[in-house]
Design goal:
By secondary structure, this protein is α+β, with helices and mostly antiparallel strands. It has a domain at 129-282: Alpha-Beta Complex (endopeptidase fold (from Nostoc punctiforme)), CATH 3.90.1720. 33% of the residues lie in helices and 18% in strands. It is built from 9 helices and 11 strands. It has helices at residues 2-25, 74-77, 87-93, 102-116, 126-129, 134-145, 165-176, 185-194, 206-213; strands at 40-45, 51-56, 150-151, 156-157, 162-163, 198-200, 219-223, 234-242, 247-253, 266-270, 277-282. A hairpin with a 4-residue loop joins strand 4 and strand 5 (162-163).
């Protein structure tokens, strides 16, 4: 009996072991979870193939509150064929501020601009200031050139019929109203230097430097024209540039053997930057450059 039971029990045990192992081999299903809200993501292509993921958050504003204090529902706030306002009705509800006319706004702008402009930056007219002008200086130079004066070293009175270079400049500037003009060319050079109106241009590149910065009404200084014992020995007035003739002109007294456009020693001459040794040029103190 025992042998029979043992014979039947062995397969049963084997079956039970196989069933248990089969249950253990079956994978257990896992429950999947879902998030109700997923942020919106956008892939942005950067420089050199770089990519970034950026989350975008969208905020929906609440509906507007009408004047009666009742909040309309989102569905009623959406425009439909029945409640879409017409152009005429919407225009009637919008009130814009009244716009001033052009004359009033321009006048207001002028008043504001005038109040913010410093008085030191307002340029006075020649009539209001009474200062001598470049136009007056040029006119007097042409008038003096018409007197047919000769160049004489040391002469300082046009009534004698002669002037030299520095006395010509002194007489001309004094004639238009410039005060305290020194007598000699080197003193006139120091005069402009003390007032910080001088620009030195001496050297190999002096001619090109001079023509780049030169303006009508400047005094031009040379050195080495005679043994003055000073760095400067000659001075003339720059009159301007004639584009038709492609020439620069100066006024003054040059030498006994030189005559200008009118055939005089005190005259208007063509500027020759290669003649003599250029030293400097500078503005005339007290002259109003127009």
């Amino acid at each position: 009996m025992r042998s029979i039971l043992s014979a039947f029990s062995t397969p049963l045990v084997l079956l039970s072991l196989l069933s248990v192992s089969a249950q253990a081999a079956e994978p257990k299903l896992r429950e999947r979870s879902f998030r109700p809200l997923v942020p919106i993501k956008a892939v942005i292509q950067g420089a050199e193939g770089e990519t970034r993921t950026q989350s975008i958050k969208i905020t929906i504003p609440p509906p507007a509150i009408p004047q009666d204090g009742k909040v309309s529902s989102p569905a009623s706030s959406l425009p439909t064929e029945q409640n879409t306002p017409s152009p005429s009705s919407s225009a009637a509800e919008i009130s814009l501020p009244e716009r001033k006319n052009n004359s009033e706004s321009d006048q207001a702008a002028k008043e504001i601009g005038a109040s913010k402009t410093p008085t030191s930056l307002v340029k006075e007219t020649p009539k209001a200031s009474g200062a001598p002008t470049l136009s007056q200086l040029r006119a007097e130079a042409h008038a003096l050139a018409g007197k047919k004066l000769h160049y004489v070293f040391g002469a300082d009175n046009p009534d004698s019929g002669s002037l030299d270079c520095s006395s010509t400049v002194q007489y001309l500037l004094t004639k238009v109203g410039i005060k305290d003009v020194p007598r000699t060319s080197y003193d006139q050079y120091d005069w402009l230097k003390r007032k910080k109106l001088l620009d030195d241009v001496y050297g190999k590149a002096a001619p090109s430097k001079l023509l780049k910065k030169l303006s009508p009404g400047d005094l031009i200084f040379w050195g080495g024209t005679w043994n003055s014992g000073h760095r400067v020995s000659h001075v003339m007035l720059y009159m301007g540039y004639d584009p038709k003739a492609d020439k620069h002109y100066v006024f003054g007294a040059r030498s006994r053997t030189s005559t200008g456009l009118t055939g005089s020693g005190v005259d208007i001459f063509e500027l020759d930057t290669e003649r003599g040794r250029l030293i400097a040029h500078g503005k005339i103190p007290g002259l109003l450059y127009e």
